[in-house]
Amino acid sequence: MKPEILLERLKESATPKACKTLDIIYEICVEQEKREVYDFSVATIARLGYKRGVPKAQSLRNKTGESYRALLRSFEEYHHNKKNNVVSKKEDDWIEEIQNPKHKLLVRMQASELAAANKKLREFNPPGTRIEVRDYQNEKLDEDSALSSLERRALEYIISEEFLGKWDFSISEFGEVVDSSGAVVLRAATIDAVKKALINL
User: Fold this and answer.
1) 100 phi and psi, to 5 degrees?
2) At which of 67, 87, 107 does a domain end?
3) Domain of life here (predicted)?
4) Residue 123 falls inside a structural domain
């Protein structure tokens, strides 16, 4: 039921004071809509309406505040349903473009099954949940694969200008390390391999 319709029905059996409070709560909720802030919780509405005559949050939660809570729920449900309808329409729009009725029916059935499967997955693994899978058998191996500071310095020395200059080596256009006579000392891509090892290990 739309909030404006529920408001009129609630006011039919309410006291004049309660009618005034219902009107104020309704106005505050409409203001929330205009701000595109869809928070219609008891605490929020009580805070926003405190200076306008809305009872405190605790009073709204009591039995006497049942009609007020019903009005707030109607706003929440209205916007929840509206949001779901828009999303659903966008998701299914492409199916309508299928010309063959048989194919369209099959696709709709599969889309329905997929939606049901996704719902079960979300229940099993809620969005935002982090799952870590650890391989304890290989954990020690992974730790050992990291370079020690001594190993790192040794690899850095191999590709340093100091090492190349000391032995009169240079790097050819093919990435090989060659001596002064042009003989290959280290094969092509050795320097690149050492650089990658330093970055990744």
Assistant:
1) -75, 120
2) 87
3) Bacteria
4) no
User: What burial class does residue 104 get, using C-beta atoms within 10 Å of its C-beta: 0-12 exposed, 13-18 middle, 19+ buried?
Assistant: middle
> Which one, of 151, 154, 191, lies nearest residue 170 by Cα?
191
Question: Per mean pLDDT, which of 97-101, 132-136, 180-184 is the most reliable?
Answer: 180-184
Cα separation, 160 vs 22, whole angstroms? 79
Domain ends where: 87, 102, 122? 87
Cα Rg, the chain, nearest whole Å: 35
Report residue 91: phi and psi, to 5°. -65, -30
How many residues would you count in the chain? 201
Q: Whose structure tokens read 């060659």?
A: 178
pLDDT in tens, 39-91: 999 999 999 999 999 999 999 999 989 999 999 999 999 888 776 655 445 56
- Total domains in the fold of the chain: 2
Is pTM beyond 0.85 here? Answer: no
Domain that holds residue 181: 143-200
